[in-house]
Amino acid sequence: MSISVRHPIFGEGELLGSRWNGEELLVKFENNLRLWIHESELTRRERISLRSVHSISEDTHKCRRIIEAFRLGIVPHFAIDQYTFGRSRETSKFEEGLDELEIAGGSVLIVEGAYGAGKSHFLDYTYNLALKRGFVVAQAQLDPFEISPYRPMNIYREFMRSLRYCNGDRECGVRDLLKHAANVELAQDHEFLAPALSLVRKNLEDELLWLWIEGDTIPRWYLNDKHFRLRAPIMLDHSTAANNYCYILSGLAFFARTLGFKGLVLFVDEAEIAFRQWYSWSLAKGLNFLVGLILTSLNRVNPTPRITKDLSTGLYVEELEGMKLIYNGVKRHRTPYVYRIPSGIFLVIATTPLHACSSHDLLRCVDERSRLILSELDEHALEVMFSQLVAAYTHAYPGFQISHMSFEDAFSHAMERRAEGIRFFIKASVEALDIQRHSLSSTASSPMK
Fold first, then answer.
1. β-sheet with 323-327: strand ranges across
2. pTM value?
3. Burial code of 45-57, b = ≥16 C-beta within 10 A, e = fewer?
4. DSSP string, 325-346
5. Distance, CA of 163 to CA of 266 (rounded, Å)
6. pLDDT single digits (tens) 328-377
7. Residues 88, 93: Cα–Cα separation, whole Å
């Protein structure tokens, strides 16, 4: 019995066969043209598919989500712990930073690696690790446009949106932290957070107040409304406002430590964006924010700074360790970089390898102990990773089996991309398994004569 189908361009046709598990169908059209067409483009009275309609198990669905992420060379967040291999040295270095935060009240770790080396994956893994160990965590991924280093307000907003900590078996955010802080009457002298906490304490907070705390732009009249008596400073969207946002972040870290948490861990990904700016002013302001955040985390900024006006640039600056830290130009809002010493912040920055010519100020802020260069995974770690990937693939596509010879061939194919980085190794692994699966499927279901 023949099956008639219709294509929006080629018209009516007769179905002859299929390949790739029914994803492509061979159709003979009325003009005798024979074409392989994706099944989604063909209809009869209803959408056609030669694959039997059946529900897949939860385990199969989860594994397919993992494989689809692997096609892009990334690991999904829910599988980070399961798919982290060969990073014991790097993890130990990160844990040393956590210990230093607990003992000394601040630390910095700069993670360096080429594109595709696994920097973002390592940050995701350590983010989960810090969360499990009782730290408050937040992360920001920089980009050349909105979340650029010379726009400190936008980076602060990303930190607030991603801030998490564990309270029992529940994950909480910045609003929960501030409600907790309001209940114990912390930080009466914090210029930004104290006015807001006084309203939270009286149950007078509303959504606009929370948006203001989280760094969103809100109407200025709201801040001056006598009904709320907030009278809070403006969250300045200025490139020179790095001092304000380091000050607020160190205030949140103080809350966290006072409330019994071990400190605030901040993750900054794609930090190399700071060195790739079109204009000299955006480069200078972006580096200033990163340098200020580093020095704040290392407790090397002054809680009572001596600020002067630089006549050559017109900026308000503080001379510190041979560098000039920039402060915003609005005197009323000219806070120090740190709320209290110690800052309570562990800053983790991921970037491509730093070079003295482009990242001079950053390198002056840290010593070799604060730098971590991601090592290339050895062949054993890659083979373990590939075996885990194959296991997920066979769960994602029930019925697919791979022989020892095919396993070795696929692994060899993936190893050819090893030099390009872990991301390309993962993508090549999935490609090799796809070839195996589709070639078997094509052999098993050749076109009908």
1. 308-309, 316-320, 323-327
2. 0.83
3. eeebeeeeeeeee
4. EEE-S-GGG---S-SSSS--EE
5. 9
6. 988 877 899 999 999 999 999 999 988 765 566 788 888 889 999 998 89
7. 9
